[in-house]
């Protein structure tokens, strides 16, 4: 006589989990976790203050003191919408001559401290890697960005000053 319930083990009457059940359950947990983190999912591992990173307050103070060149790498339409952080240089990262333009701002010194800020820290992280490969040796990321991220509230919500781009 065949067993009417193939999902039960005769030695252990509890139902066994099928592969499909495990996968479905794991998917539900994973998707639920994304909902908890909301829009900050992409940058939750970057925390301002880690090696090679500055908070927006630190970046503002260092740029104001002339210790770093703070570069806003966003697009011109983004600068027009929110303004550019005070003491930051607006330099669109999509420019074909971006590296040369940045070198001009640091008097051709690729070891000069340069901090990069974008909207939410994603582009600045990518550009940090790109500039390091191009020979820059002191690139600093501002992972909070202008709008905030998992690293912190960002330049605007922190109440730091902005200027309108020319």
From TrEMBL:
Its EC number is 2.8.1.1. The chain crosses the membrane at residues 21-42. GO terms for molecular function: thiosulfate-cyanide sulfurtransferase activity. Signal peptide: none annotated. Coiled coil: none annotated. This is Thiosulfate sulfurtransferase GlpE. InterPro entries: Rhodanese-like_dom (IPR001763), Rhodanese-like_dom_sf (IPR036873), TAT_signal (IPR006311). It comes from the Bacteria. Keywords: Membrane, Transferase, Transmembrane, Transmembrane helix. CDD domains: RHOD (cd00158). SUPFAM superfamilies: Rhodanese/Cell cycle control phosphatase (SSF52821). Residues 64-164 form the Rhodanese domain.
């Amino acid at each position: 006589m065949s067993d009417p319930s193939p999902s039960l083990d005769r030695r252990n009457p509890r139902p066994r989990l099928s592969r499909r059940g495990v996968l479905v359950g794991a998917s539900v947990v994973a998707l639920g976790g994304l909902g908890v983190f909301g829009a900050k999912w992409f940058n939750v591992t970057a925390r301002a203050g880690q090696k090679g990173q500055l908070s927006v307050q630190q970046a503002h103070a260092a740029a104001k003191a002339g210790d770093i060149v703070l570069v806003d790498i966003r697009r011109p339409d983004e600068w027009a919408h929110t303004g550019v952080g005070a003491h930051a240089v607006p330099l669109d990262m999509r420019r074909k001559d971006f590296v040369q333009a940045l070198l001009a701002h640091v008097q051709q010194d690729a070891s000069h401290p340069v901090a990069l800020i974008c909207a939410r820290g994603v582009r600045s992280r990518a550009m940090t890697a790109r500039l390091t490969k191009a020979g820059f040796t002191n690139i600093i990321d501002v992972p909070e960005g202008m709008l905030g991220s998992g690293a912190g509230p960002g330049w605007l919500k922190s109440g730091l000053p902005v200027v309108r781009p020319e």
